[in-house]
Design goal:
45% strand; 0% helix; single chain
Length: 196
């Protein structure tokens, strides 16, 4: 036996009892036959093996769409183009956090607040998991300030509040208060426009 010929893709001898078939479409179901070749010629085709499902290709066109969360601001949403094919994508996995999404957009949880990530996705069907996609830059929302304490009151309509700045490598661009107004971007937090 010098080689095998498959009805789909390209076959190469893997061992005495198996061959590797390449150049197939991802996430697609095939019915495949084999023929054997030796120095005298090629055999007739074998009986077909059916329901051969290839692994999916990686998702494409990833885009960071939003960051959500409440007490722990650890959720991000990523839109993407799913792999093509007639197979069923059963799950997506990310290189950070966890996700239960099976379609776009994909909600990823378990991330640290106020942190930059380079995020990739992989698709899984019943035959296995794709390679990782190209990455997309993601920034999670910050956690709320903590350890608030009253610092001082310099006028009748303003107070100064000390707090612990949220951790993370993202840049905090501002703070808001439940009452009054402010333009503070650091601690202490100056609240103005208060009434007695």
């Amino acid at each position: 036996v010098t080689k095998y010929i498959s009805s789909k893709g390209s076959a190469s001898i893997n061992s005495s009892t198996s061959c590797l078939i390449t150049d197939l479409c991802g996430n697609t179901t095939f019915s495949i036959t084999l023929a054997t070749v030796n120095a005298s010629g090629t055999s007739v085709a074998s009986s077909a093996v059916t329901n051969v499902l290839t692994r999916p290709a990686a998702p494409t066109n990833l885009s960071f769409s939003s960051a959500t969360g409440s007490t722990a601001s650890d959720n991000v949403s990523i839109t993407f183009t799913p792999p093509t094919g007639d197979g069923v994508i059963t799950s997506y996995t990310s290189n950070y956090g966890t996700t239960a999404s099976t379609s776009s957009p994909c909600l990823i949880t378990g991330l640290a607040g106020n942190k930059n990530y380079s995020m990739t996705l992989a698709a899984t069907n019943s035959s296995g998991t794709s390679l990782a996609s190209s990455s997309v830059a993601v920034l999670t929302r910050p956690d709320p300030p903590s350890s608030l304490s009253f610092n001082s009151s310099s006028a009748y309509d303003r107070v100064s509040i000390n707090f612990a700045v949220p951790s993370g490598d993202g840049t905090i661009t501002g703070y808001t208060s439940s009452v009054g107004t402010n333009t503070t971007t650091t601690t202490p937090f100056i609240v103005t426009g208060l009434t007695g």
